[in-house]
TrEMBL record:
Entry's Gene Ontology molecular function annotations: hydrolase activity
SUPFAM superfamilies in UniProt: Nudix
Annotated organism of origin: Salinispirillum sp. LH 10-3-1
Keywords: Hydrolase
Span of domain Nudix hydrolase: 22-158
Keyword Protein biosynthesis: no
Protein known as: NUDIX hydrolase
Top-level lineage group: Bacteria
Pfam families for the chain: NUDIX, Zn_ribbon_Nudix
Amino acid sequence: MKFCSNCANPLVYSVPPGDQLARHHCAACGMVHYQNPRIITCTVPVWKNRILLCKRAIEPRLGYWTLPGGFMENGETMAQGALRETWEEACFRPTLRQLLAIVDLPQYDQVHMFYLADMENDQFAITPESSAIELFAAEEIPWQSLSFRTVEAALKHYVQHQHLQGPLPLLETTIPPH
């Protein structure tokens, strides 16, 4: 950020009066320009004990397997974002069962939220965001070809607890920098 969106004057990066953290703020009009973590909302879609994974057709991590998900949009709930992203990446609408995992990535200013989701049938389709989509049994998951460590954490948590009856425990974890 270089200029104030309120008055167009140059911004200063320092601790504004009354705050404790350095932020972009305008010395002319006093507006503070907050930058907060972004939420990524995803699904772990399941059909008859098989997990749906999408092969990424876009960067980052082009060609790697992932769960349907992406950045939450303004004006939508986490659940709405997870359902929208699942539609955009795999052309189906699952039923959200429960929140399964919350994974913090403070080094990237992100929080990843994963919903366990039931598929009504095995009908899905590739999209501009996914070059392939497959259903995997737990022992077939391509662990070495997963796109992100957050996806790996959510999948491992699900596989470890999928045999339980009723709600699965919630994973709350932080992934440190490499």
